[in-house]
Amino acid sequence: MATHIRVIIFIFTSSVILLKHSEGARIFTIVNQCNEMVWPGITPGDNFGGGGFPLKSGQSIVFTAPVGWSGRIWGRSGCNFDSSGNGSCETGNCGTNLKCAGSGEPPATLAEFTLANPDFYDVSLVDGFNLPMSVRAVNGVSGNCSTAGCDGDLRDDCPSELAVKVGKRTVACRSACDVFNTDEYCCRGVHGNSMTCQPTYYSKKFKSVCPTAYSYAYDDPTSIFTCFGADYIITFCAGRKQTVCTYHDNRLICNGSNRSFEFVHKLLLFMISSILSLWLLA
Ligand SMILES: *[C@@H]1O[C@H](CO)[C@@H](O)[C@H](O)[C@H]1NC(C)=O
Ligand SMILES: *[C@@H]1O[C@H](CO)[C@@H](O)[C@H](O)[C@H]1NC(C)=O
Ligand SMILES: *[C@@H]1O[C@H](CO)[C@@H](O)[C@H](O)[C@H]1NC(C)=O
Ligand SMILES: *[C@@H]1O[C@H](CO)[C@@H](O)[C@H](O)[C@H]1NC(C)=O
């Protein structure tokens, strides 16, 4: 009788441990490595600080994305909000609210996610560029979990006809579609498919700064990623190659998926449950 109960307890605890491990809620770590404050905007933002908050230079913040979350994250720069969260920014405004209820105004660099099985993620410059961004998948089990985003800062290299300036500073770079509104730049009309919408002088400039980001609407092959079981680190103003770490299940994970580390972790779990079962059955 007592043994039966122990067996049941054992099965229950091991399934809880295993389930928790495989289900794996997605941890989002947002890091500001810019020299200035950034005000991330997130929509839908219910599980992300209400959709907007200030993030000081060098700070990071951690959220857990709900199952099935699909949304976008961008940065706002040069903001001025009053104590009630009313104000405006030089780039990325979502109306006048600190907490975003909808999308930001272009031009803004966007990180886009669809969490499913697998997750889809990308960084998009289709609506222009305001801050360097990278999306790094960590602890991914399979898929192409490459880092999406930028190595450099397009504000330093923006063609003058696309530049958004505040005084003498370039604060953002508009897309050619936004500025010239032609079918060629906007991938419309006869240019409305992946065969006829080709890279342009401007989109190539965007691509050179952000090699794994959408530089125009049909830039899919090198820009969209699919990854199973990962957590995500979204960094403002860091190159794709920089080392970054995040916490998941109280473990520090660095630099992309580490299969050997994962294996050691699973071995450890197995040993703990074995010891537990021996003790329970004794
Ligand atoms: C918010 O601030 C703007 C100026 O930035 C002002 O015009 C507007 O009236 C303010 N709205 C509220 C609700 O305080
Ligand atoms: C993953 O994506 C990167 C960047 O687009 C690409 O260079 C690489 O070949 C892809 N890897 C696989 C296995 O598809
Ligand atoms: C992390 O990756 C970068 C570039 O891919 C590399 O230079 C660095 O040495 C890596 N760090 C570790 C701890 O593996
Ligand atoms: C990967 O895991 C090994 C242990 O298996 C560890 O020594 C190494 O530091 C890990 N690398 C990273 C970048 O976390």
From TrEMBL:
Question: What protein am I looking at?
Answer: Pathogenesis-related thaumatin-like protein 3.5
Q: Which Gene3D superfamilies match?
A: Thaumatin
Q: What is the lineage of its organism?
A: Eukaryota, Viridiplantae, Streptophyta, Embryophyta, Tracheophyta
Q: Which UniProt keywords apply?
A: Disulfide bond, Signal
Please give the family membership noted in the entry: Belongs to the thaumatin family.
Q: Which Pfam families match?
A: Thaumatin (PF00314)
Q: Which CDD domains match?
A: TLP-PA
Q: Where is the signal peptide?
A: 1-24
Which Cys pairs does UniProt list as disulfide-bonded?
A: C34-C237, C79-C89, C94-C100, C145-C227, C150-C210, C158-C173, C177-C186, C187-C197
- Classification via SUPFAM superfamilies: Osmotin, thaumatin-like protein (SSF49870)
Q: Which organism is it from?
A: Dioscorea cayennensis subsp. rotundata (White Guinea yam)
UniProt-listed InterPro entries: Osmotin/thaumatin-like_sf (IPR037176), Thaumatin (IPR001938)
